[in-house]
Amino acid sequence: MDYRKISEELKELLENGGQPVAVRLVKNEEISGEKLEKKRHCEFIQDARLRGACGYATADEHLCRGGAAVLGLCRVPPQVADGSLYHKLGNYSTLEAAAETVEAVPAVKGEYHASVYAPLEEADFEPDAVVFILKPAQALRLSQAYLHDRGGRISGDYSGIQSLCADAVAAVRERGIPNMTMGCNGSRKYAGIRPEELAVGVPASDLEGIVEALRKFREKWG
Amino acid sequence: MKLNLRGVNRYAAAIITDNILKNGVQNLQLILKEDSEEVRRVAEKHHMEYSPRETEKGLVVNISPQGIEEIDVTGETCPGPVIIVGDRLSSMEPGMRIKIKSESSDVIDDLALSAPEMKAEVIEKSASHLILEKTDVSREREFTGKDKVLVVQSNGTGNAERAYATFIFSKAALSMGKDVTIFLLMDGVSIARKGGAAAVKHPAFPRLDELMAEVIEMGVKIYVCEMSAQFRGLREDNMVEGCKIAGAATFITLLSDPSYAVVNF
Predict the structure, then answer these.
(1) What pLDDT score does B148 carry?
(2) Are B53 and B25 in contact (CB under 8 A)?
(3) Quick check: A96 contacting B, CB < 8 Å?
(4) Residues contacting B248, CB < 8 A, separation 6+
(5) Mean pLDDT, to the nearest integer, of A196-200?
(6) Residue A89 near residue A59 (C-beta atoms within 8 A)
(7) pTM for the predicted model, two decimal places
(8) Could you tell me how far CA A113 lies from the centroid of its own chain?
(9) Minimal CA separation from B170 to chain A, in Å
(10) H-helix segments, A53-170
(11) What top-level branch of life does the organism fall under (chain A) (predicted)?
(12) CB B8 to CB A157 under 8 A?
């Protein structure tokens, strides 16, 4: 797939929706490119989107262990797994509610050595998920484009924690379908996802159909 | 494909399921919070069967075109059934199920015993059928030392010394607190033929059939190789009570168990 061309079209058709970001999880032997400096997964995505940063991060480079864990790079820290961290942070009134939420957070199956990031137009790999940071009106168009051929509905499956990692990448990779998510405290605070933005993760295999549908929308709707 | 959707409400679960099935996924296993009419309707819309099952993890729902694929291994000669089932399981995704039918309960027992070796779990079992579910990993056995003994006997009544050794060593192992299983194969199956062991007597020991009855009484399991039995016209009706026909799958499973010390006679 010509990701450079697709990326250019997506940016134009989504009216400056920003740079889509390609994310892939790799085993040891598949790794290439430069190691990124220590940051969070959501920051790696923003760096790729806003500054064109490319590279990979092993568990050691992931400052957010919860994010790294759902991407299969390390084990879930005990205080995340049992809900106590989110309970302590004030997200939930009870430990049980926190634990129930954490148990439901999507995570990839299997273990991986690193997560790889690139602006979609620079991606020299097949992405497991392509992450878009969009305004709601742009996310609406993207959703409509996904449903253009297949019909039905699209789900936004999120809980407000572990958003760009679990919802926009792990869930997309495991299910093979898009997911819309509202960001989380970490991605808004550290990665600078703005109040008027949300995130959508899409399987790379759906991009061509989405571009085609967006072109038709433009013809019909202007 | 196997997904945990316990944290997703049933309406969203139905939307996710619909979109996955539209991608052409043929076998989907979901863990849901609750039985879902919405997800069931989506499965029906895609002409697939929805089969729910309560488990410790929650409600596990299998969605696949014909529910469960069926294969009938009736009439297949050992090791045919385990090869057919093993080949089929190796191409299946974790969570998928298969129903195996056979008119022989021995074949069903054989396949059930060896299921973990084939990365499968027994979901349902009767004398004539077995439902297996492919799992992610092989059974992990905790190695606690060789506390069991597998005696493999392949010479039979034609070699009295080896025939006696089979049961004398078994008695010795039992007295030392070991679990003992005897597997008779090739000429060894002659020991299981009614009247076969009765013809063997050493002056210093009880008659071989009496020794054999004694170890059976003490709890030793005796398996008789299905293929060797067929070669020699041995059937359930002309076999000593307490012996059981078993296939290659049982033999390989026993040999693969690290807790068994294996002795050959």
Answers:
(1) 93
(2) no
(3) no
(4) B78, B79, B82, B110, B225, B226, B227
(5) 97
(6) no
(7) 0.66
(8) 18
(9) 44
(10) 65-70, 78-81, 84-88, 95-104, 136-150
(11) Archaea
(12) yes
Q: Is B3 on the interface with A (CB under 8 A)?
A: yes
DSSP B193: B
* Full 3-state SS string of B48-107: CEEEEEEECCEEEEEEECCCCEEEECCCCCCCHHHHHHHHHHHCCCCCCEEEEECCCHHH
- ipTM of the complex as predicted: 0.80
How far out from the chain centre does Cα B168 lie? 28
Q: Note the pLDDT of residue B91.
A: 81
DSSP A25-43: EE-GGG--SPBPPSB-HHH
Q: Which residue of A has its CA nearest to B45?
A: A152
pLDDT of B66 > 60? The answer is yes
Cross-chain CB nearest to B7 (options A101, A174, A177) = A101
Helix intervals (H) in chain A = 3-13, 41-51, 65-70, 78-81, 84-88, 95-104, 136-150, 171-175, 185-189, 207-221
Residue A117 phi/psi, 5° resolution? Answer: -130, 145
Which of A104, A157, A177 is facing B20, going by the closest CB pair? Answer: A177
pLDDT at residue B145 in the model:
76
% of residues, chain A, pLDDT over 70: 100
CB contact under 8 A, B8 and A104: yes
Among A13, A12, A3, CA closest to A48: A3
Please check whether residue B45 touches A, CB under 8 A: no
Radius of gyration of the CA atoms of chain A, in A: 17
Instruction: Please report the residues numbered 108 through 137 in chain A whose beta carbons come closer than 8 angstroms to any beta carbon of chain B.
Output: 109
Q: Do B6 and A176 touch (CB under 8 A)?
A: no
Contact between chains at A159 and B7 (C-beta distance less than 8 A): yes
Amino acid symbol at A84: S
Q: Read off the tokens for B106.
A: 């021995």
Q: Which of A103, A155, A174 sits opposite B7 (nearest CB)?
A: A103
User: A105 contacts in B (CB within 8 Å)?
Assistant: 7
Residue of chain A with shortest Cα separation from B31: A104
Locate the chain B residue with the closest alpha carbon to A110: B136
Half-sphere exposure for A98 (CA within 13 Å, toward CB): 18
Closest CA to B32 of B49, B15, B65, B57: B57
Q: Which residues make Cβ contacts (< 8 Å) with residue A221, sequence separation at least 6?
A: none
pLDDT, residue A131, reads: 98
- Rounded CA gap, B91 and B205, in Å? 53
